[in-house]
Amino acid sequence: MSSLIDHLQAKLGALAAQDLTRFLREAESPTAPHQIVRGADGVARELLMFCSNDYLGLAAHPRIAEALAEGARIYGGGSGASPLVSGHSVAHARVAETLADWFAPHIPQARALGFCTGYMANLAVVTALGDADTEIFSEALNHASLIDGTRLAKAKVTRYGHADVDQLEALLYASPAKLKLIVTDAVFSMDGDIAPLPQLLALAERHDAWLIVDDAHGFGVLGENGRGSLEHFDLRSERLIVVGTLGKAAGLAGAFVVAHSTVTEYLLQSARNYIFSTASPPAVEHALLTSFDLIESELGKQRRQHLRELQQRLSIGIEKLLKRQPGLAWRLAPSSTPVRPLIVGGNAQVMELAARLERQGLRVPGIRPPTVRKGEARLRITLCATHTEADVDRLLAALEAAAADMARISA
Ligand SMILES: *Cc1c(COP(=O)(O)O)cnc(C)c1O
After folding, report:
1. Is 52 in the pocket of ligand 1 (CB under 6 A)?
2. What is the rounded CA–CA span in Å between residue 338 and residue 1?
3. Ligand 1 atom having least distance to the Cα of 145
4. Does 364 sit in the ligand 1 pocket, CB within 6 Å?
5. pLDDT tens for residues 283-337?
6. Does this chain's domain 22-51+301-410 share its CATH topology with 62-296?
7. Does the beta carbon of 214 lie inside 6 Å of ligand 1?
């Protein structure tokens, strides 16, 4: 056998020894709370899912499917080229105009630029703006794509502690850099808490810095009209640069950057991930216009309200259940979003809990290091507006049964 294969097998073996092996499952039906999924044994089962980021339940909405089909009839399949060559369609332009309008109350001279994924958009913004004259101040719990952006950027990179506004202020104050960029998730994807954006923006104003906000989990969910964390906090500044993703609450795929038009023009001229990558399929852009309609419609408002009610129900239920099992050192993360992690601790323990839930017909993923800190492996419970109260109660009952068994075994 070649030495490369041996080398990789040894590394895979080391992951397995730490209970860190990941594996794929195959879904046979649309993304929805009740989904047909083939497990590792190849058998298809209907599972009650608490894992997708389709927070408004739009991925399976019939109007989205119809809009995609209509878009395909108008524009066909792929875009055929990068945006600056020939991949930019009327649909792409309309999506960008809609987003620019949505963010106009929050960012003066707002203009939007589209990307195929949030990962790409984050790499683009952080590498294009993080030049050699710049110091990047990066929040400790940022998403992997922002971290990768800081690794590729020419800027000096300084990490600050989670939500540690005081530490950030001291770092900004001490920095001699010509340009300063603060980079943060708006909603932390594995914790569900919201960054202190008003304080971060105040620091940006005071220290002449820019604030990049990754709103992957806020867009569609937060704010009266679902426009995300800037609407939630009612922020306005030309220093704000927002990245949003369209594969989560928007139910489709893609991403955008909205910022002052000079910033977006600079990205268009210089971001390698924008210039050298094929534009998204125009049918997807066409369908995004329908998704935006749904997000700001009465249906969107009702779904956001229902989500908040489910969040409350789940948290109260889990707190009660944890009180009944004081032997388990589990805790609920202090989240105020549909991401509601239950922190369990060890890798093997969280995978055991996830497996027990799956045997009861529920899929709630266990999240292990390096995605989260060592010793903080967790069940990442996500709620969608298409869940019912009965779905949440079923999760609570299954958790209760698993917790009682696991407390008995460990006692
Ligand atoms: C999902 C996610 C991304 C990446 O977006 P994709 O469109 O899935 O590539 C970026 N940032 C955060 C915080 C995310 O959760």
Report:
1. no
2. 48
3. 10
4. no
5. 999 999 999 999 999 999 999 999 999 999 999 999 999 999 988 899 999 999 9
6. no
7. yes
The residues spanned by each domain of the chain are: 22-51+301-410, 62-296
What CATH number has the domain spanning 62-296?
A: 3.40.640.10
Query: Which of 116, 119, 337 is the best mutation target for the ligand 1 pocket, counting ligand atoms within 8 Å of the beta carbon and taking the most?
Result: 119
Tell me the two tokens of residue 67: 């809009």
List the structure tokens of 191.
Answer: 């914790």
* 3-state SS, one letter per residue, for the chain: CCHHHHHHHHHHHHHHHCCCCCCCCEECCCCCCEEEEECCCCCEEEEEECCCCCCCCCCCCHHHHHHHHHHHHHHCCCCCCCHHHHHCCHHHHHHHHHHHHHHCCCCCCEEEEEECCHHHHHHHHHHHHCCCCEEEEEECCCCHHHHHHHHHCCCEEEEECCCCHHHHHHHHHHCCCCEEEEEEECECCCCCCECCHHHHHHHHHHCCEEEEEECCCCCCCCCCCCCCHHHHHCCCCCCEEEEEECCCCCCCCCEEEEEEHHHHHHHHHHCHHHHCCCCCCHHHHHHHHHHHHHHHCHHHHHHHHHHHHHHHHHHHHHHHHHHHCCCCCCEECCCCCCEEEEEEECHHHHHHHHHHHHHCCEECCEECCCCCCCCCEEEEEECCCCCCHHHHHHHHHHHHHHHHHHHHHHC
Measured in angstroms, how far is the CA atom of residue 192 from the centroid of ligand 1? 14
Q: Using CA positions, which residue lies closest to atom 6 of ligand 1?
A: 118
Task: Give the Å distance between the CA of 325 and the centre of ligand 1.
Answer: 35
Task: Establish whether residue 280 lines the binding site of ligand 1, counting it when its CB lies within 6 angstroms of any ligand atom.
Answer: no
Q: Which residue from 214, 229, 277, 280 has its CB within 8 A of the most atoms of ligand 1, so it is best to mutate?
A: 214
Tens-digit pLDDT profile for residues 230-249: 999 999 999 999 999 999 99
Instruction: Give residue 41's pLDDT.
Output: 83
Reported CATH class of domain 22-51+301-410? alpha beta
Nearest CA to ligand 1 atom 1: 216
The alpha carbon of 328 and the centre of ligand 1 are apart by a number of angstroms equal to: 32
Q: By alpha-carbon position, which residue is closest to atom 5 of ligand 1? A: 118
- What gap in Å lies between CA 113 and CA 100, rounded to an integer? 9
